[in-house]
Write a structure and sequence with these properties.
This protein is an alpha/beta fold. 35% of the residues lie in helices and 20% in strands. It is built from 14 helices and 15 strands. The strands form three sheets. It has an eight-stranded mixed beta sheet with strand order 11-10-12-1-13-14-2-15, sandwiched between helices. A hairpin with a 2-residue loop joins β7 and β8. The longest helix is centred in the last third of the chain and has 23 residues. It is globular. The model has no long low-confidence stretch (mean pLDDT 95). Bound molecules: zinc ion (ZN).
């Protein structure tokens, strides 16, 4: 094993823009972060465009890039496939997997909330999926659907046709994303949005059948969920009903990529929670370490430090900041960053005692003002005794801009970090 010890932390949606509720500072700038500050002083900074200039990426393709994998010319299989792998849905080439959101719509299919208020219990999600699984009847008797709820508003849909390989060349029913080269790209979501009809993007029976199945699924789901007990209970409790599923990022084949250890020539493990990151880890053959639930920051830090006994590098994905960005809650994001600084980085530095290089970045920016992902570069810090310092004093967007590492593409970050310490 090479003599490399690296902890690579991606803070989901960490990048942001100045916000009026924080005196025109970004959440990173406004937060009290003594541990991140100390890491910044012992390292060098830069900025990262995770996927491509002008692209506001979703987490799946962003994380792939941040782990060294960029996909060219439509070769990416789509988030639906990655999430279905992440949640162990039975998926074969020719099935069509999609990422779904439980959403709230009105009678005219105008979207009231893309995530049905986001507060969704696992039992509620399971009840909705069970109803749909048992009651949806396609006009084509060879068509079937499988559904798996994952976390909160997230669900995975797998369409299957008994006699035909389905095409993934169909448009989303979710109006907040469109597809470019297999990647889901976030749209500007200000203004009214309606559930979209899926359209075949190529002239083939496989695409027409796939889009028809998705449209039948979507229409029937709205009818079936209109007056279910789970939704009556939600409305009575002042919550938004889960009366629609928005689907996006269709994919119809299993991804073929080099395992991550082969790609980088070192062994890489991970600590991840969400189905999309679990799916990526499985696809890349990463050793997964269990470290409590999504908010178990101290445990994640302890397990990360310990994992370096068996792997050269460990990738830790911390989901928190992104959710506050989506909610437009800049003060919440600042508080979450302070939590992560104290509980995760505080513990990590104590455990490592300087015995490893720490690389910190994000998968994309989720500015609170935009309530969604943006194409703004994210800060990058490489910190450790083998790194030449560049005078950075804090882990912020502005120090990233001035840092000596400059502007990197996502897929170059890990190779660059390995070169710096190898
Ligand atoms: Zn993300």
């Amino acid at each position: 094993m090479k003599d490399i010890r690296l902890v690579y932390i991606l803070l989901d949606g960490i990048g942001d823009l100045p916000h009026p509720s924080l005196n025109d500072l970004t959440p990173l700038e406004a937060a009290y972060t003594p541990n991140l500050d100390s890491l910044a002083r012992k390292g060098a900074m830069g900025r990262v465009i995770s996927v491509g200039k002008g692209i506001a990426p979703q987490s799946d393709i962003a994380v792939f890039n941040m782990l060294g994998y960029s996909f060219k010319d439509g070769s990416y299989v789509g988030r639906g496939v990655i999430e279905s792998i992440g949640c162990n849905i039975d998926f074969h080439d020719g099935d069509l997997a999609l990422r779904g959101n439980f959403a709230t719509v009105d009678d005219k299919l105008k979207i009231v909330d893309r995530r049905a208020g986001r507060i969704i219990g696992n039992e509620e999600a399971k009840a909705v999926c069970k109803t749909l699984r048992e009651s949806i009847k396609f006009s084509d008797s060879d068509a079937s659907v499988a559904l798996e709820p994952t976390v909160a508003h997230r669900v995975v849909i797998r369409l299957r046709h008994a006699k035909m390989k389905l095409s993934d060349r169909i448009t989303n029913t979710d109006p907040a994303y469109y597809k470019v080269d297999g990647m889901g790209i976030a749209k500007d979501t200000s203004g009214d949005m309606f559930v979209q009809k899926s359209i075949a993007e190529e002239d083939s029976e496989q695409a027409r059948t796939a889009s028809r199945m998705l449209n039948e699924f979507t229409t029937q789901a709205v009818q079936l969920l209109r007056d279910r007990p789970v939704n009556r209970a939600r409305v009575a409790a002042g919550k938004m009903p889960m009366n629609c599923i928005l689907a996006r990022d269709s994919g119809n084949r299993y991804p073929i990529v080099d395992p991550i250890n082969k790609k980088h020539g070192i062994s890489v493990g991970c600590i991840v929670d969400m189905p999309v990151e679990i799916g990526i880890s499985k696809v890349l053959g990463m050793k997964m370490f269990q470290a409590g639930d999504i908010n178990a920051y101290e445990e994640k830090a302890r397990v990360a430090a310990k994992s370096l006994k068996s792997v050269n590098a460990v990738y830790v994905h911390i989901k928190g900041p992104d959710e506050f960005g989506h909610d437009g809650d800049a003060r919440g994001k600042r508080k979450n960053i302070e939590d992560i600084d104290r509980r995760f980085f505080g513990t990590l530095m104590e455990e490592l005692k300087g015995g490893a290089t720490i690389v910190i970045s994000g998968d994309h920016s989720t500015p609170c003002l935009k309530k969604g992902h943006s194409d703004d570069p994210v800060p990058l810090l490489v910190s450790g005794s083998m790194v030449k310092q560049d005078g950075s004093a804090r882990f912020t967007e502005n120090y990233g801009k001035r840092g000596r590492l400059g502007l990197l593409m996502g897929a170059d970050v890990l190779p660059a970090a390995i070169r710096m310490v190898g």
